[in-house]
Each structure stands twice: as structure tokens, then as C-alpha cells.
């Protein structure tokens, strides 16, 4: 599972990946484009250094 998190975290800083996500997301109801942008906690949890640490591997 940690490997999947690392792959996602590494792609998150890729401009092409970000564009693909934003272009493919369709705002509907309360789910707006702001759902794509990570808050500070989500960014921390997506950090590949954290994700690959002992603390990040905990369930």
C-alpha cells in the first residue's frame, strides 16, 4: 500500500498529471473543483518521505 501512496504523491507535482486530473473532474452538486486541491494535512500525508516512513506505513 505504501508503494501506491508514493506513486500518487510523486505524480501530484507533475503539471501534466494535475492538468489531466482537473480536466477529467466534473463539478457536480457540492463537489466543486476545490475538492482537487489538497489542504495542509492532505499534502503532508501525500509527502513521499512521510509515506515511506515507519509512521506513514501505519494503518
Automatic annotation (TrEMBL):
Source organism superkingdom: Bacteria
The name this protein goes by in its record: Sulfur oxidation c-type cytochrome SoxX
Source organism per UniProt: Polynucleobacter campilacus
Phylogenetic classification of the source organism: Bacteria, Pseudomonadati, Pseudomonadota, Betaproteobacteria, Burkholderiales
